[in-house]
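Homework help board

Subject: predicted structure for assignment chain

Our instructor gave us this sequence and asked us to write out the predicted structure in token form, then describe one feature. I got the tokens but I'm not sure how to describe them. Can anyone check?
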Amino acid sequence: MALRKILALIDPTSDIQPAFERALDSALDTGAALHLFACANSETGLGNKDEAAAALEAMLQSLAARAVDAGIQVEYEHEWEEDWGARAVSAAARCGASMLFKNSVDHSPVQRELHSTSDWTLLRTSPCPVLMVKNFHDWGKRRVLAAINPLSTEIAHVRLDNQIISFTRRLAAGYGSEANFVTAYQDLNYPPDTERIAADCGVPPERVHARQGKAADTIRSVAAELEVDLIILGTVARDGIKGRVIGNTCERLLDQTHADVLVLN
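My token output:
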């Protein structure tokens, strides 16, 4: 897959940067350039605006030096802004990022329910795919699981499925990974046609996993069985109840799986 530039969102509150480590590895694999972005505000604990700027400059310089030593083209920037998610989206658009990498921080169901998290805001509004990185580990299995909804006749979902299938095939080819596809359904009288899905996805039928149940539970279960390194899903930007349901599916997966999660919109 053609990755031109990866924006790695750096967490100013942590010395551990899984998103940067994954971005560094991906840049080495694909030849992509890196753009490092960090945002501080009154809640990051780095002091006032000037003190935070100095701390972020030192942090980003150190990470950028590692990329330079590895022969990777890199640039970086930092800002002071309360809404870091919106600034990260702007930075991704401004620098022409092909993908945005971010640390994945688990939240409890209560935390998710009480307020809309910045993760979900980022996933819905990013101009490029977002990779949510768990504690950094090598993609040893080289196995990818993409979630699709082939029973839906909504135009937006059909387009999104086509986007997910195309993206997954290109990513699997670029990383030398094994592509698998999963779909959840409710009505046992009308199960998905796995042979047709396999043909549409360009994979053997045994790599299509159709299960009866809720989407998040099905995806998580199949991901655990296959020991996948990466889960790929999509979001259709919506407000209100439907948007919240889609958001809950993404967020539950982020909180309940050990795999990295890549979201397309």
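Reply (TA_rk): Your tokens look well-formed. For the description, you could write something like this. The longest strand covers residues 33-40. That's the kind of observation they're looking for.
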